[in-house]
Each structure stands twice: as structure tokens, then as C-alpha cells.
Amino acid sequence: MNLVRLISISVGLVLIWQAIVLLTGVPPYILPGPLSVAEAALTHSGSLFDHAITTLFEIIAGLLLGTLLGASSALSMIASLSLKRWLLPVLVISQAIPVFALAPLLVLWLGYGIGSKIAMAVLIIFFPVTAAFYDGLRSTEPEWLELAQVMNAKPLAVIRHIRMPAALPAFASGLRVATAVAPIGAIVGEWVGSSKGLGFYMLHANARMQIDIMFAALAVLAIVALTLYFLMDRAMIKIVYWQKDNGLATKAQRHEGEK
Amino acid sequence: MNNNIKTNTGPAKRPSPPDIFLEKVSFTYPGEEIFRSLNFTVKGGQWTCLIGPSGCGKSTLLRLISGTLREDLSGEIRFSDDNVNNRLIAWMAQKDLLLPWLTVLDNVCLGARLRGEISAEKRQRAISLLEDAGLGAYVSSLPSELSGGMRQRVALLRTLMEGRPVILMDEPFSALDALTRLKLQDLASGMVKGATVLMVTHDPLEALRLGHRIYVMTGRPAQLGSVLIPPGLPPRKPGDPAIVSLQAELIDRLSRTSHEEFGIEGGGKT
């Protein structure tokens, strides 16, 4: 059902695009029609694929590293009060500097290769992941913690068995945001300086007035980003298996009597 | 359903139930004095009910005893077998507090898991408890698949699983419909036998059905009235004439000592 809607939206957008090209008569070097873009995509499918793989790798590596970093800093802030006092300001400061402004520096330090792009993606997702997970960890139902206290629970067991699972829904929404913005990091990194990846390919095509190729690269990027998002969404639904439809609807529906 | 299982369950492993002594207990929330030099003894091995209007400090008293509330407490709370209140107490709240990501079985075993003491034997014990309580078919269900009454039954079993001699209950049945509440009261009364139970409630009928001893708590700072000991052994039948007349007296005591703001919940029930 979701997929059907996605396809119809895409088809609709392409139709509007074609209509604009037909009605306004813009020259193809400003806005090529869908057909010529599709043709360019086919003839250059080999290099498009190559560059897409590079970008995809950067995004996934950035996501993995950023999630790992974000989750562990959120956890350590919950586990230790003094660590939290030091880490929280660092987090806020890191967010005050626009990540885009750091891109040239990252390329300077980490080189033209994928390292600087992964670092960009990590920087861009670190904050949403940390903030979401930390918020989730912090807002555990206080009565659960009280119950655990009366049960003489070990502090680490409380984090592992109560706080962490309770924070998973918040963590999942943080990861969704991260998946949506991680491609931005990778692409900006590629724009600033690289020799591979969809961002590089777009600049390259743009410089040669191959606008149809540029659009083809853009379309491939959109497909990559969307696929990643949908896969992540599916995974997150699996991970918070106890939350059906956000957990709100089911509670009201539940009125079957006692066994 | 199967009788042979019942042998290894029940309150078997519980240590002997201690008395709880509260001596000169004072406690103040910012700007509000809840208790001033309160003396109170909860008799070991019996079910004591504390009844009073909402917000009179009943739940605060339970929290002080359980140790979840410690700051600004003066006076002494101790147990007759001289242990500190460590590992003596099990807690049951108004909300079932089931963890939605754990199965019913894992929820019942939560305490052992949080202490790192989980074992196959404990799981087996939990399964037989669940079977005894008529929840055998739901061992691996998630709490969201259960009705409110079943969830509270699981919470009761989780409390019993702790095997502790003191059980503190904070209005554990008040969120349930009348019939489910009666059934669960009977179940609880049977299963906690032998433990020192202190239950807070605002339902006079509930107190009269379950309590060996009943105290009315009112005022600010809160005071406890003299003990009321209903005839017969709990769980008493709701239609028992003695219960019905005592209910009138209890309501009378409540309204005589309390402020006007207190509306008597469940007052018309017979």
C-alpha cells in the first residue's frame, strides 16, 4: 500500500515535470525532459552505478559510525552524571558550528577520499542520534525505576533491561532522522573535494553542461536515499516490536474480556 | 487446571514475616507537613489496610517504608527481625508497571533478572505460578495482548515471585472494574497468605474484604485512627452482613475525621 502510493507520487512528479518542459519550452540545458534524462541514465548507467556505490558506502559507513558514537555518548551521559556535565556542552557547541562550514577543513585533514565524506555524515547525524537517545533514556517511567529499586536491581541491569529498551522508540526516531540527513553530509563532502561519488559526478557533469546526466545522478541519489530510509523504517518497526502503530491506537482497541 | 503443580508454588519460600515499626516518623514536602511524629505498627503475617482520602499521605507512607523516599525523613522505620529494610519488601502499585517489551513470563521474573539471579528453576516456578493464576496460555504473550485485569494479575505474580516477607500495595486494584476487582482480591488474598501486607486503598469495601486490621488515615499532618478489626477471616464475602454494617461505620469514621473536600468514593456500594 505504501509502495503503491510512493510509485504513484513518483509518476505524478515525472508527469508534472514533463508538462512543465512541454508547456514552457525551456531549453534542455536548463531543464531536460524526463525522457532525455532516462536516456542519459541508460547510456551512462555504468558510471552512475560506480559513483552511486561510493556514495552509498559513505552514507552507510557514516550512519554506522555516527550511530555508534551517538548511542555510546548518550549511554555514558546517563551512566555518569559528571560525564554528562562535560559532554552536554560539547554537544551543544558542536551543533552551533554549521557542519557545512567544516567541510573544507575535513577535506583538508582527511583527504579527497571517502574518509572526509564519512566524517561529514558522522558529524551531521551525531547530534540527532545522541539527543533522541539521551532524551529517551532520561524520560524512563519513574515508577519503573522505583519498582526496580525496591527489587534491589543492579544499576547496570536497570540501564540494560529498563532504560535502554524504554528509550528504543526515541532512538528509532533519531535514527530515522539520521538516515534522512546522512546523504546530505556525504554529498556536501563530495562537492567540496573528491574524485568519486554521485556528488562529484553531478559537479563534473554540470561543468560540462551535461545537464541530463546531472539530473540522472540526482535521480539515482534520490532512489538511494529513499531506499535507505525505507529499509531503516522497516528495521525500526521490527526493533520496537511492542509498539504497534505508535502504541496509541491499540490501547484503546483492547477491550476483550478476561479469559 | 492441574493440581499437581500447586505443590511447589505458593508462599513456600518466604522468610518469616516481620512486624514493621514506625517510630516518631516525621516527613515534610516543601511547604507541607505530611507526618508529624507518627507512631504506627504493622503486625507481622497479617494484612493491614490503610484507608483514607486521596492525597492524605497514604502512598507517601508506603514509599517511606519501601525506601524509595528517604530524604527529609526523620524518625525510625524498622522491622522486627532486625534486618535493614533491604531485600524484605515487594512492591505492587496501582499501575501494573509491566514492561511492554518483555513477555508475561519475563515480566514475572523481572526482579531476578534485575538482580542477575535468573535461573531455569526460577522460570519454572514463574510458569507454575502463571498456570495457577489461569494465565498458563499467556506465558509468552506481550502485556499489550492482555486485558487490564490479566495485566494486574501478572503484576501480582511478579510481586509474589520476589518471595519477600513484606508486601506493600498502593491501591493495586483500584483501576479495575468491580467484578474483576473482586476476583483479583480473592486471588491475592489466597496467594499472599503469611506475608506482612500493608495495603493502601480508598475503597472501604476492599479494606473490609481483605484486611485483618484496618486503619483510617486523615488530616494534615496525617493521623491514624484506632484499629478496626472486622470479624472472620479474609477474604470476606462482599454480601456478608457484618461487612455491610461495618462499611457504614467505616464511611462514618472517614467523613467524621476528614475535611469537606473528601467525597466518599464507593460509599453507596452494598
Could you tell me how far the N terminus lies from the C terminus of chain B, measured between alpha carbons in angstroms?
32 Å
Count of helical stretches of chain B: 8
Output mean pLDDT of chain A.
89
The greatest interface between two protein chains, and residues involved on each side, is: A-B, 33 and 33 residues
Structural account:
The complex is a heterodimer of chains A (259) and B (270). Chain A has 259 residues and is mainly alpha-helical. Chain A has a single domain (44-242), classed as MetI-like (MetI-like fold, Orthogonal Bundle), CATH 1.10.3720. Helix content of chain A is 82%, strand content 0%. In chain A, helix 3 (45-79) runs antiparallel to helix 8, helix 5 packs across helix 6 (114-138) and helix 5 crosses helix 8. Residues 246-259 of chain A have low confidence and may be disordered. Chain B has 270 residues and is of the alpha/beta class. Chain B folds into 2 domains: 45-88 and 166-260, P-loop containing nucleotide triphosphate hydrolases (Rossmann fold, 3-Layer(aba) Sandwich), CATH 3.40.50.300; 100-163, no CATH class. Helix content of chain B is 31%, strand content 21%. Chain B contains 8 helices and 9 strands. In chain B, helix 4 (120-132) crosses helix 5 (148-161) and helix 5 (148-161) packs parallel to helix 6 (178-191). The two termini of chain B are 32 Å apart. The model of chain B is unreliable at 1-12 and 260-270 (pLDDT under 50).
Provide the descriptors you would attach to this structure in a database record.
heterodimer; A: 259 residues; mainly alpha; MetI-like fold; 0% strand; B: 270 residues; alpha/beta; 2 domains; 6-stranded mixed beta sheet; 8 helices; 9 strands; disordered C terminus
